[in-house]
Amino acid sequence: MGTAASAPLAGITVVDLTRALAGPYATALLADMGATVIKVESIKGGDSSRSWPPFEDEHSLYFDSTNRNKSSVAIDFYTDEGKALLRRLVLGADVLVENFRPGVLAGMGLDPDELRAERPELIIASVSGFGSTGPLSQAAGLDQVAQGMSGLMSVTGTDAGHMYRFGVPIVDMSAGMFAAFGIAAALVERQRTGAGIEVSTSLLEAGLALSAFQGQRYLSTGEVPVPQGNDHPVLSPYGVFKTADILVIIAVGSDKQWRQLCGLLGAPELADEPEYLSGRDRAANREALQLRIEQLLAGRPGLEWIEDFRAAGIPAGPIYNYRQVFEDAQVRELDMVQRVRRSDGSELPLLRGPLSVNGAATPIRKAPPALGEDTRRILAELRLSEEQIAGLIEAGVVREAPVPEAVRA
């Protein structure tokens, strides 16, 4: 899958009107699969995440993390000429992705009904904060707000008095994945019927979808789950344990693994004690069991234990910081980090997408673009003349990224 032409979504053009993270993550996944993604940004600063830290020189690494393999065109959406260009781009695409509040798209001259009437095969995908209906449909939403309202924060932390947000924007990224899945499904539907459809999700819906058994627990039993720190909420032993030197994660998912663990710990009799005989027993007595296991683990270094557990088929591993993550042999073998050059010539080590096709990892073909980096090329592909493009740039309707002196040289 070394070239876009050989990728699964080759030939699909996506106009990306999204900003921040959920929408851009969705379109990054589509670009990984070979889609041509045209990121259309406001001439006045572009995607809001371009101004978010952390920074490397003037480059936002927040922006860079989700905008690989895309092109950027910068347009003034408030001018008639800009609206006409935007509409022309959309009507030439297969997919439009947006994450405005419901109704904003129509105000930009892109009413979904009108677009689909003119181009029935167009797929329109939307990611909002709280959904297209309901009392909060017009409210602004960001990741942590959705983490709180979806219940995710209520089961994350040390206890009910200390609830935490995830260390990454998990709801944004999940909403992006769900949107990309919806778009892929819509493309299959279009192949079958010839017609495009509208798909949508929201941060709140995505957060709720992540509740898994915790949400079902409340729905079926009325029990309100609470945080349990680094322990699995229903399985034991499954969590973080102290060894002679480091903390390790041990995840026992069956009675067979439980007996194997006890044997490796040098205490096979532990498996037959009444308090720990079944999974339900072990969960009910998790605190005492944790102490017993940590007493046995204290005699050896953590990495030695991990090696033995893995050899026996028991899931186990260390807790890495990000320096250790990127030094790990398995991560290196997966070629997760690829190096690209931005348009200004600077090198960027960048995480690739998480998918492989026919055994080949999805490549990063293009660095995250500067604002307006591809404006001139994209307008030329719309069959505008050089004179027309120059006039639009001069009038401030569109913007192109300046070419750094070092690159020109």
Automatic annotation (TrEMBL):
Q: Name one Pfam family in it.
A: CoA_transf_3
Q: Does the keyword Transferase apply?
A: yes
Q: List UniProt keywords, sorted A-Z.
A: Transferase
Q: Name one GO molecular function term.
A: CoA-transferase activity
Q: Does the keyword Disulfide bond apply?
A: no
**Official protein name in the record:** CoA transferase
The organism encoding this protein is Arthrobacter mobilis
Identify the taxonomic lineage of the organism of origin: Bacteria, Bacillati, Actinomycetota, Actinomycetes, Micrococcales
